[in-house]
Design a protein that fits this description.
It is a single chain. This protein has two domains: 91 residues, no CATH class; 55 residues, Head domain of nucleotide exchange factor GrpE (Nucleotide Exchange Factor Grpe, Chain A, domain 2). The protein contains two helices and six strands. The strands form two sheets. Strands 1-4-5 form a three-stranded antiparallel beta sheet. A hairpin with a 2-residue loop joins strand 4 and strand 5.
Length: 170
């Protein structure tokens, strides 16, 4: 028996469960199309956000690599200026020494501004930041401690640009 109060509406499809019975099939199709477009747009937005973030990370990485290349080129100049200062001190040429000191100080400020930091060599030998050139016996020093720095080491952020070259106690 059928209930006389419940009659199917004209144009409605009883197989469409969950749809509003008062909505025509054309409106339902348009709503589905709208929802599909909205979903596609949201996915596209998420993909673009990921692309933007990835591009920003790559840009930062490329900038860091460019700075690293520049600073690697400047390190020999810094070393030469330090050697010139040592030689000038021995020959007592005050004006030469003063000029070289000024250049050295300015170059040192420049590389520090770009993020270059000197690696500490006080204390124990660390193979991650030090390069042992040779090991010497030293009665007054603990084995594995740094006795002498042959060449300073530098890092850019958390990356070692050049390890400190040191003499280590046996």
């Amino acid at each position: 028996m059928t209930d006389p109060k419940v009659t199917p509406q004209a144009g409605s499809d009883p197989s469409q469960e969950g749809s509003d019975p008062g909505v025509s099939p054309e409106v339902a199709a348009l709503e589905k199309e709208r929802d599909d477009y909205l979903d596609a747009l949201q996915r596209l937005k998420a993909e673009f956000d990921n692309f933007r973030k990835r591009t920003a990370r790559e840009h930062e990485s490329n900038t860091a690599r460019a700075n690293e290349a520049l600073l690697k080129e400047l390190l020999p100049v810094l070393d030469d200026l330090e050697r010139a200062l040592e030689a000038a001190e021995q020959h007592e040429e005050a004006k030469l020494e003063e000029g070289v000191r000024l250049v050295h100080r300015e170059l040192e400020k420049t590389v520090r501004r770009h993020g270059l930091e000197e690696i500490e060599t006080n204390g124990a030998f660390d193979p991650h930041v030090h390069e042992a050139l040779l090991a010497q016996q030293a009665e007054e020093a603990e084995p594995g401690s740094v006795l002498q720095v042959v060449q300073k080491g530098y890092r850019l952020g958390d990356r070692v640009i050049r390890p400190a070259r040191v003499v280590v106690a046996e």
